[in-house]
């Protein structure tokens, strides 16, 4: 799902990891956006334009000269780069040495778990990776601060000795989709969501319908009882139902409606199908407000083309809007970690302070 991360997995050539560390005002990408640069090219993007061109030049100079020290560079987009964004972007540059390569390999294995990455931006290269309980799991923790602000997005902070650190939350995707149906539209939706920040449980009884190659964020479930996977979906998870059988669609819809904690629910079909399902759900005692929340037909209003790829693009936009709204609501409240019951590391040195 993360090109900058998976590219480092198989590439043995030297590279530099570039991270958007801070943004003041308007910028082309959000904090935490990354790209990886080698002498032969780059993977991913921090926003394109003159900013990215300058960042690539700096990274390639580091590689050409063997400069392995991390650094933080400030770019005024309007005055110095002539970009319309007009804000100020601070970029962190990290030479991917053997230690950082091993740390990123651990991070890649933990993509479904929350991690926090700390890198010293001054002095000798030091990187450390922590889990949600604040315990060191990779890298060098001797010099890293004992405490850091886990409720913030990627930022730069300063420890008690004045040393600057990149604090980079690498959080597991919160969005989860249970997709029932491995037909043409279902397969097109999986392709459309392959590189988006979500996890997908793809369910169908026909095992031969699933492709042999799957995106990293997809897990398949070949089963005759798809209702079980509706029950196992995480609270607030999204659902898409598009099977080959209206009777099965009806059963799954009923199962989803019975979950008080179900999130967005989309059902493929026409307005006529919706009317039929509304009637059957009311007969079964489903409250009107739950029925009203069912999205059927699916897709963005105004897009009428029914080609699978078009439906997939439309539904992907619909889901992104739902997921971004949920993410914004989560950021408005204090972050509650899955392992919040585990005591955090006790600070033995001065706490880190945001810049």
From TrEMBL:
The record's section on Pfam families has:
XdhC_C (PF13478), XdhC_CoxI (PF02625)
Q: Known NCBIfam families for this protein?
A: xanthine_xdhC
Query: Which residue intervals define the domain XdhC Rossmann in the entry?
Result: 177-319
**Domain spans labelled XdhC- CoxI:** 13-74
Q: Which lineage do the record's taxonomy fields give for this organism? A: Bacteria, Pseudomonadati, Pseudomonadota, Betaproteobacteria, Burkholderiales
UniProt organism field = Janthinobacterium lividum
List the signal peptide residues. Answer: none
The entry's protein name is Xanthine dehydrogenase accessory factor
């Amino acid at each position: 799902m993360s090109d900058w991360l998976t590219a480092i997995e198989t590439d043995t050539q030297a590279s530099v990891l570039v991270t958007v560390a801070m943004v003041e005002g308007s910028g082309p990408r959000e904090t935490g956006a990354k790209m990886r640069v080698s002498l032969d090219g780059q993977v991913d993007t921090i926003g394109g334009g003159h900013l990215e061109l300058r960042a690539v030049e700096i990274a390639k100079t580091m590689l050409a000269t063997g400069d392995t020290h991390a650094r933080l560079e400030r770019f005024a987009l309007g005055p110095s780069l002539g970009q319309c964004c007009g804000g100020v972007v601070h970029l962190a540059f990290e030479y991917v040495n053997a230690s950082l390569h091993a740390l990123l390999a651990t991070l890649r294995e933990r993509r479904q778990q929350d991690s926090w990455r700390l890198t010293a931006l001054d002095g000798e290269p030091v990187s450390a990776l922590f889990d949600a309980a604040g315990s060191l799991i990779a890298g060098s923790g001797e010099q890293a601060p004992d405490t850091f602000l886990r409720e913030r997005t990627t930022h730069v902070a300063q420890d008690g000795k004045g040393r600057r650190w990149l604090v980079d939350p690498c959080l597991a995707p919160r969005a989860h989709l249970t997709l029932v149906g491995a037909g043409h539209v279902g397969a097109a939706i999986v392709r459309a969501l392959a590189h988006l920040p979500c996890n997908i449980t793809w369910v169908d009884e026909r095992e031969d319908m699933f492709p042999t190659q799957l995106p990293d964020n997809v897990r398949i479930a070949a089963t005759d009882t798809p209702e079980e996977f509706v029950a196992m979906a995480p609270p607030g998870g999204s659902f898409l139902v598009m099977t080959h059988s209206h009777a099965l669609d009806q059963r799954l819809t009923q199962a989803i409606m019975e979950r008080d904690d179900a999130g967005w629910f989309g059902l493929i079909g026409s307005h006529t199908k919706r009317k039929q399902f509304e009637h059957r759900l009311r007969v079964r005692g489903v409250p009107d407000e739950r029925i009203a929340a069912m999205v059927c037909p699916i897709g963005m209003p105004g897009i009428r083309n029914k080609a699978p790829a078009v439906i997939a693009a439309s539904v992907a936009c619909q889901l992104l809007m739902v997921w971004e709204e949920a993410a914004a609501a989560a950021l408005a409240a204090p972050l509650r970690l899955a392992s919040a019951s585990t005591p955090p590391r006790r600070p033995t040195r001065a706490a880190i302070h945001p810049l």
